[in-house]
Amino acid sequence: MATITAADVNKLRTITGAGMMDCKKALVESDGDFDLAIENLRKKGQKVAANRSDRESTEGAAIAVVNDAKTAGVVITLNCETDFVGMNESFVKMATEMANLALNFNSKEEFLAADFNGISVAEKLIEQTGVIGEKLEIRTFEKLEGAFIGSYIHSGNKIATIVALSANIEGADEVGRNVSMQAAAMAPIALNEEGVDSEIIAKEIEIAKDLLRQEGKPEAMLENIAKGKLARFFKDNTLVNQDYIKDSKMSVGAYVQSLDKNLVVTGFKRAALG
């Protein structure tokens, strides 16, 4: 039987983040074999994860990161069950490290299979489920590329956004951040009219017609009036057509072009908890 020292326990705790007693028990069970002890702790995580698979993980941290060239960005949410865990400094740090890793991949599947300090991201989530005792998952993974990428994380890491601009010019940093803030605050459903799903458009037109019928409008007039209401829907719900939150006298598109007449928003991604 190997002698398990306090230094051994502390070393395993540093490697895995597990509790002192859990680390000591794992080392005793593995007869001092660190690799086997880590495997045993991960197996504990797998068991906990299975037991909590039906739990709601609506808290956590939404993170946005952009590469050094500012040509690519990602938003992810690392979800957990309680706000207490989601606001923990080490949890947010892990979420940020994972987001930086996510920059290297184009899909959630590739990201989850990627190496994260010796194990895959998916395995790390299982391991930390065992350590923390809450269901953890990557709920959102969105990547965006463009000539310039701006980002914004709302206070408390509840919402994260990235925005693509058509050119990297002087002043793009401020505009990119402001438009990202707009996307966080106003939750647009699409970049512009062309990006709105046809089913949503059809539904909005039908809702408008039903309301007009209730108001007693003639059937022959419904289509044209409904299209007018649809224009208002686009203004309220598409990013470039929304009133700019810092100056409601102009649209977001007009604000962007106030920096340069040729500058446009080419895309955005938004991740929110809940």
Strand content: 15-25%
Mean pLDDT: 92
- What is the overall silhouette? elongated
What strand line-up does the widest sheet have? 1-2-5
Could you give a short account of the major beta sheet?
3 strands, antiparallel
What's the order of the H and E elements? HHHEEHHHEEHEEEHHHEEHE
User: How big is the Rg?
Assistant: 24 Å
N→C terminal distance: 49 Å
Number of strands: 10
- Unreliable stretches, pLDDT < 50, 5 or more residues? none
Give the structure's gist in a few sentences.
With 274 residues, the protein is of the alpha+beta class.
Summarize the structure in words.
- The chain contains eleven helices and ten strands.
- The termini are far apart.
- The protein has helices at 6-16, 20-29, 34-51, 83-86, 89-102, 108-113, 121-132, 172-186, 198-214, 219-237, 252-259; strands at 59-66, 72-80, 115-116, 119-120, 137-145, 148-153, 159-165, 243-244, 247-251, 265-272.
- A hairpin with a 2-residue loop joins strand 8 (243-244) and strand 9 (247-251).
- The model has no long low-confidence stretch (mean pLDDT 92).
- The strands form four sheets. It has a three-stranded antiparallel sheet with strand order 1-2-5. Strands 6-7-10 form a three-stranded antiparallel sheet, covered by helices on one side. Strands 3-4 form a two-stranded antiparallel sheet.
- The chain has 274 residues and is α+β, with helices and mostly antiparallel strands.
- Helices cover 49% and strands 21% of the residues.
What's the helix and strand layout?
Elements: H1 6-16, H2 20-29, H3 34-51, E1 59-66, E2 72-80, H4 83-86, H5 89-102, H6 108-113, E3 115-116, E4 119-120, H7 121-132, E5 137-145, E6 148-153, E7 159-165, H8 172-186, H9 198-214, H10 219-237, E8 243-244, E9 247-251, H11 252-259, E10 265-272
Antiparallel strand pairs: 1-2, 2-5, 3-4, 6-7, 7-10, 8-9
